[in-house]
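During the reporting period the student researcher (J.K.) took over the structure-prediction task from the postdoctoral fellow and processed the backlog of single-chain submissions. One of the processed entries is reproduced below for the supervisory committee.
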Amino acid sequence: MSFCIDFSWATRNKRGLLPQEHEKKCRVCSQTVTCYKARQETHVPLSQYNFLNYLTFLVYPALFISGPVTTFNAWISQIKKPQNSHTQKQVFTYVLRTFFDYICFEIFLHLFYVCALSTNPANEHLWMNFSLKHLGIMSFLELIFLWFKFLMIWRIPRAWALLDGIEVPENMNRCMCNNYTFEGFWRSWHRGFNQWLIRYLFIPLGGTKYKLYNIWVVFSFVALWHDMNINLVVWAWGICIALMPEMLLRWYFWQPKFKPWWNTFWWKYFCGFGGGLDIFLMVSANLVGFGIGWNGLMMVLNNFMNLEGFLTLTMGIVGFAVGVLIMFMIREKEDDADKGF
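J.K. obtained the following structure tokens:
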């Protein structure tokens, strides 16, 4: 898809990037450095759209096995001119960080057996005998396992690609526990694929103008792209259902008439509680798609259908809300750093 659409846009001279306008806004690009976005959006010569380059792009080992998704334009431009936005020292540091992440993952696997407990049907009776608190903790640890697993699946190939002189988007540029909205979580979790979808599906379908409608097409494609599995379809539609009220509430409360509320002392706590509820929904959706499945999630939720379960869930959501308030502080520090304060 990437090769064909980039080729089509190049032949019709569409979706091209104006270098001068881009360099004024970009903090990375200079006379000697070209960022990933500039490589992706700039058309390469039509002679580069040939079968040999297509086949090489398709089976490039670092990305073919399990690596981050990239576009043909960005990839072929770095074959001719290797990436220069990362120095050799930065690449070496990234490789060391990846090795350290691998060691941490090994330690996690030796301490927590959530994968074996959740994916092996023979262990279902163990979940049935857990207390409510244990069920909640195990569900959250399962999501941490998924984050750790995909972190290694994507970072090792990206380190390989960087050693080859090819830059690809960094998936999971935020820790799993540093996201409080579905939209932000998805952008961070599979960032390369998110950019790919925005370029080839979301914008051609109408972009933000029809966002409430085209997210269903995009996430259904994502589910089928992963695998022909009913749990993944439920996961994708669950995300869409959760995204719709999130987008509507954000649009509604960011109208000018609510501006006096933004500076009140209770506003951040109101947003924090909403973020905590969002995290609970994110945990549930990802457990369906990549963890215990729909039946497993229903089994867990059924155990919470009583007064004790309600109080436990409420405490969990409040705990998530406290974490969201810490995330707000982190975002404020990041904004201050970007402004040079």
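The committee noted the following: The chain has two domains: 1-85, 86-339.
J.K. will present the remaining backlog at the next meeting.
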